[in-house]
Design brief:
The chain has one helix at residues 275-281, and strands at 17-19, 24-28, 31-39, 57-63, 70-76, 83-87, 90-96, 104-108, 142-147, 150-155, 168-172, 179-183, 199-206, 209-216, 222-231, 234-242, 250-257, 263-269, 283-284, 286-287, 291-295, 302-306, 314-325, 329-337, 340-349, 354-361, 369-374, 379-383, 401-405, 413-421, 424-429, 433-438, 448-454, 458-468. The protein is an all-beta fold.
Length: 471
């Protein structure tokens, strides 16, 4: 029997079964609504079609505050990743047909309660020769929006073989009769590989630019985005960057715009455990914290911040100031211990090559996870090579260190925010990077926290910590 000390306490996950893509999100009538792909394992095990594909429902949860979530009946019993939007004022969802074939389906909610969905039209739509075999048969994630009298939809995550990622644009006035418009954008090999795809597309305006948020299945897989211009029904990418970095666990991002004007991102923090181990424990996958994204002042990147509402989960605050860490030294923090924590640090390097914080440390040093900033080249890293002594883990990439570039120099003060929730670790570095990692310490006493500096001294101007958990 596996002890379930891996199960998070304040991140959302269903009581049982598989949590996969957050496939749609909408702020509606004062509540945050989130739909995600879910397979229940409660009775007969994961439902599968003849080719072995695991069917997934559109599970539906909502919250008044991004912290306390209420479950609702499934919106769709069998679907794949799509999105939700308003068409002529009516909540409408688009999703790929669960049995494939290059078709998309629509459901509408005339009652406006996001509960009673009518399939209109009843037959699959968006069948088109461009979606034929050999072009992109493996993935037809979809997204749609309204402009004027038209509904525009993008689907089909690849171009002709070897031509890279793309989306194809369709339009309709009634969700029944569709016409193909053109490629929505053309990818470039300076950014992406010819075998990449543009799965889980989410297209929206962010400040002065347009953003196409998406996910790539080609290794190294993960969440990423384009920023660019949207003109004459065509997207022109001008900037490309990653959200998930090699070794990370941020999968299938989805956003919503709330009544405060915030663009809020959710993702699936996918597993490092094998499917067999997950099924034995009864659950697979975790929803990320709500992350507010915004356009950087220069307009060439996005900024990341955890939603302010998460502060309601804080308890037992601890504070330290003016901590000097000598070269190649460590500073234990005996007053800050635990596996459900938020840490907030403002750190100033004074010649150190690496500095940061170690979490989930075992007393004998056998296990630890290291969150650090490196000076040359400037990067934020999660080193999880010694996070666990388990021999039954199976990360998608066997790297052990996740690394993302950041912009800082010696002498700069840089802020780190770290959220720890049993097997979940999320890191925000100076609003520039958001990293997610799944870790699985074996020891119940692996709860110590330490500061460290290597290759030179470091000065911690301030450190705040809280125990975290639902109230």
């Amino acid at each position: 029997m596996i002890q379930d000390h891996d199960r998070p306490a304040y991140h959302y996950l269903p009581p049982e079964g598989l949590l996969w893509d957050p496939c749609a999100a909408m702020f509606w009538k004062g509540r945050y609504h989130l739909f995600y792909l879910h397979s229940s394992w409660a009775e007969t095990g994961p439902p599968r079609r003849q080719d072995g594909y695991m069917y997934k429902a559109w599970a539906h949860i909502s919250s008044p505050d991004l912290v306390h979530w209420e479950r609702h009946p499934n919106a769709i019993e069998r679907g794949q990743t799509g999105n939700i939007f308003l068409f002529n004022g009516t909540p409408t969802i688009i999703y790929p047909h669960p049995d494939g074939g290059g078709a998309s389906c629509f459901a509408r909610n005339p009652a406006g309660d996001l509960a009673n969905w009518e399939f209109q039209p009843s037959d699959p739509v968006l069948r088109h020769p461009v979606q034929g075999a050999g072009l992109y048969p493996d993935n037809n994630d979809a997204s749609a929006w309204q402009e004027g009298a038209w509904c525009y939809a993008i689907t089909g995550s690849r171009d002709t073989p070897g031509a890279g990622d793309t989306q194809h644009l369709f339009r309709s006035r009634d969700l029944g009769d569709w016409e193909y418009v053109d490629h929505f954008y053309k990818s470039e090999r300076r950014w992406t590989d010819g075998k990449d795809d543009c799965s889980c597309p989410d297209f929206f305006q962010l400040g002065s630019r347009w953003m196409l948020l998406h996910f790539c299945h080609q290794l190294p897989s993960g969440s990423r985005y384009y920023l660019g211009r949207y003109e004459d029904r065509r997207f022109h990418p001008e900037i490309f960057d990653l959200i998930n970095w090699p070794g990370g666990n941020i999968h299938a991002p989805r956003t919503m715009l709330d009544d405060k004007g915030r663009r809020i991102l959710f993702a699936n923090l996918n597993e490092g455990r094998t499917m067999n181990i997950c099924q034995e424990s009864g659950w697979y996958g975790v929803m990320s914290l709500p992350v507010v994204i915004s356009l950087a002042p220069e307009g060439d990147a996005i900024c990341y911040e955890p939603a302010a509402e998460l502060q309601t989960l804080r308890r037992n605050p601890q504070r330290r100031r003016d901590i000097d860490i000598e070269a190649d030294g460590e500073v234990p923090l005996p007053e800050i211990r635990g596996d459900c924590l938020e840490l907030e640090l403002e750190v100033e390097t004074r010649g150190a090559a690496e500095f940061g914080v170690k979490v989930r440390c075992a007393p004998d040093g056998s296990e630890e996870t290291v969150v650090c900033l490196r000076a040359e080249p400037a990067a934020v890293q999660i080193d999880f090579r010694r996070a666990s002594r388990r021999d039954d883990l199976a990360y998608q990439q066997d790297l052990g260190v996740q690394s993302a570039p950041v912009d800082f120099a010696q002498g700069d003060a840089i802020k780190l925010r770290i959220f720890l929730d049993h097997s979940v670790l999320e890191v925000f570095a100076a609003k520039q990077r958001y990293l997610g990692q799944r870790i699985y310490p074996t020891r119940a006493d692996a709860v110590e926290v330490k500061l460290f500096s290597r290759g030179g001294p470091t000065f911690v101007k301030g450190l705040r910590a809280w125990q975290m958990g639902p109230k």
